[in-house]
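>> received
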Amino acid sequence: MAIFSKSNVPQFSVEVYQNEFLPEGGREVNAIATVSSTGGGTIGTAVSAPHLYSAGESPDAAVAIMVDCSGSMDYPPTKMRGARDATAAAIDALRDGVHFAVIGGTHVAKEVYPGNGRLAVADAATREQAKQALRRLSAGGGTAIGTWLRLADRILASADVAIRHGILLTDGRNEHESPEDLKAALDSCAGRFTCDARGVGTDWEVKEVTGIASALLGTADIVADPAGLAADFTSMMEAAMGKEVADVSLRLWTPVGVEIKFVKQVAPTVVELTDRRTEAGPRAGDYPTGSWGDESRDYHICVQVPGADLGQEMLAARVSLVVPQSDGSAQTLSQGLVRAVWTDDMAASTSINPQVAHYTGQAELAQVIQQGLDARKSGDVDGATAKLGRAVQLAAASGNADTAKLLSKVVDVVDAAEGTVRLKAKVAEADEMTLETRSTKTVRVKKQ
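>> returned
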């Protein structure tokens, strides 16, 4: 694992891609903001011992691992064994000094290690103790994920750290609490810690797991075969160990008369942020992006500007990356500008920026996959064929090979370019769930 020094604080940059030219009467401005964080997180000096860090440094992170221990985890028994092995692998990936806890989840949440509302501090001894405690995990009881999240929140809050992260594994539907209870728990935890969610097997509800990850700004995925859990948990933990800056927000300032139509993350996954805005002063609002290591993400911003005469230009929006400070203020890490210029040059005003076009297509791809699968489940063959055909067409046009491969397990592709497909008569449940779970994963725009 690459080890970094806290002196290597990531440097953020914002690049704005757009066609700023509008025709006479034009009012809609679209822009892609590429945000990059470099020089921190996983960037650093690789060392041979995976648990060491720079002399004098203290890792500024806490992690809670939530393991489903409901009765269904015993069917087949490989699921519970896989979950124990995966949690042990994740514990092995913890850096020395990171605070951590393990929670067993049924219709109630129980502390597996270290207990008494505390967090352990990772070193050789506590990692071994935690793995010994995992041997006591057994399956039995129901599923109430909101209780797991609330306990994780209480335990993580006990540490004075910048990065708080959860890893959640479930194999079943959230049957022992109401959807309202789960939503209330997510609302309570949002902004307090991030969380990656995984569904193992095929008896869980995709929209529940993806909803948890979306609300808590983490990742979601399916692990159809329990044998794949250990590698997946290790990868998740290593990604969490690479985070360096928490609570980063995308701040959007707009002049008088400008209306924000939407703000969404479009790479590496599609995440709707419009409704998550919190006010940050006159005509400014913050949209949460979670924790960052060494990485790059893309955001699609769409605003409506007032009408103006030909030849006029204006600042349509200012995009900033900000982090909160202890005194209540916010530090600006980087910023970019979105402009609008009115012109009678038809070639200029009708040109579509490649980045905007690409991510508009990727967002539509995620949407039509969901609509197509919903139609298929409801027995609407014509609707499912039309939507999934459009998905095949979009995946092919954008070079999204991973999604195209997943689609080919649900439909027979007759003509990808035209979007002509036939629904397969028999589809493995794992294949359909994998397509649904990964439908929001996008590919980056090809460099021009």
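>> The radius of gyration is 23 Å.
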